[in-house]
Amino acid sequence: MDSALIPEGVKRCSFGKFAIWLVIVGAVLLWGVFAMLLCWFKGLNQTNMNDAYGFALWIWADLAVIALGGGAFFTGLLRYVFGKDELKNILNYAVLIGFICYSSALLILAIDVGQPLRAWFIFWHANVHSMLTEVAFCLSCYFAVLTIEYIPLILENRQIDRVPFFHNLSHNMHGIMVIFAATGAFLSFFHQGSLGGTPAVLFGRPFAYREGVLIWPWTFFLFTWSAAACGPCFTILITWITEKISGKKLVKQEVIRLLAKIAGWMLATYVVAKIIDTWYWAAVTAPSKGFGIMDFYADNPVYGIWILILEVGICGVIPAIILITKTGRKYSFLLILAVFLAVLGVCLNRWVMVLQVMAVPVLTFETWFMYFPSWQELATTILPVAYGIILIMISYRYLPIFPQERQMEEEKHVSIFV
Amino acid sequence: MFPFSFEWAWDMGHMVFMGGLWYALSIIGLGMTYCLIMAAVDTAKGKGSH
């Protein structure tokens, strides 16, 4: 039915099967849209946010998808600026994942802002003393860059590419993509960093507060670093899931291993920096504010010292060791386990820096603030996941996302008959 | 965002923040304008016809 739109030389499932899955995931999407409309029309009383939790589940999801979308800027930087040409075979998918992550982040912010009609105030009446203003600027501009990086992919659809103007536009956009990729890396460095800097400048909250250099707390650099390390891991993980669902190899193992190796070294150096930062905070910064480290991990039903061990040890040290060793990257099981742990680790880090920060009591007469999101918050957090799955389904079906797919299918076909 | 906004001040904060924003927007805008013009020129020359 839609075979004229499917890239040449590759196989896709029947349109009926595709449509059924689209309807199933679309139903989840509509549930999220319903919750989103409730928040827009009835207001933020639809959430369980309160005076203690001005940032809630949404902002964690926002920070997590921004970190996971970091694969786009870092892979683009490696391909276009550092000349790692092999990565062109996974870059399209990294861009698509980045596009989904950043559009999701903006959607979440549009729900969270409370009065979406005034969202433009942050640009027009910018508070130049706020790190979040910089985040808003860089997020919006970087989303524009990701859109520019995604457009040539759409234009390469079999039917659209037949139109000479679109063919030429795609060709010319590829020609200067290095400028957009470098701009994207510049914007990502600052908004990832400022997201990390925001909790760390809260000197009234010793759990989050960090020292730093000039106006930048150490977490400014740690957030950018972790996004550059774990974003590519997320790209590898989603590629692996797509391969499992489609039942075929889409990217050659050498390409995956190269990206995993670079991500591994980024993760290893990040973990060392994170351990030093945590040690200095526990030994010097927090005590200088009158707190011992265990004050942040006791007397509450959820946040024990286990969360620190899980984040830095199990989801930091272990995946880093696996990814930097040749043996670790050689075995698919170990490689996928490592990227999964790295992704979990960065999500956990954002959870700690957003939600645990809100939970920790600051004044002597306070107790821990516990919070559970409302169903509207859960639905609107799941909404971007459903949207992402749908966009991946459509892009995978109709666009040449994986340049090696056709060649790998031909090789497989030949090997069967030889 | 613009010097004619009532809260605008010619201080370092505004120059760095707004300078960065306009720098990024200019690259994005000029880059896309270049691509669109070149695509129109190439099409007019008959390039890209299948």
Question: Care to describe what's here?
Answer:
The complex is a heterodimer of chains A (418) and B (50). Chain A contains 15 helices and two strands. Chain A has 418 residues and is mainly alpha-helical. Chain A has a single domain (17-406), classed as Formate dehydrogenase/DMSO reductase fold, CATH 1.20.1630. Chain A is globular and about 75 Å long. Chain B is mainly alpha-helical. The termini of chain B are far apart. The mean pLDDT of chain B is 90. The interface between A and B is medium-sized, with 32 and 30 residues.
Architecture blueprint of SSEs:
The complex is a heterodimer of chains A (418) and B (50).
Chain A lengths: L14 H28 L14 H12 L1 H12 L6 H25 L8 H4 L6 H25 L8 H12 L1 H24 L11 E2 L2 E2 H29 L6 H36 L17 H19 L1 H5 L1 H28 L15 H24 L6 H13 L1
Antiparallel strand pairs in A: 1-2
Chain B lengths: L11 H33 L6
Task: Give a brief rundown of this model.
The complex is a heterodimer of chains A (418) and B (50). Chain A is mainly alpha-helical. Chain A is 71% helix and 1% strand.
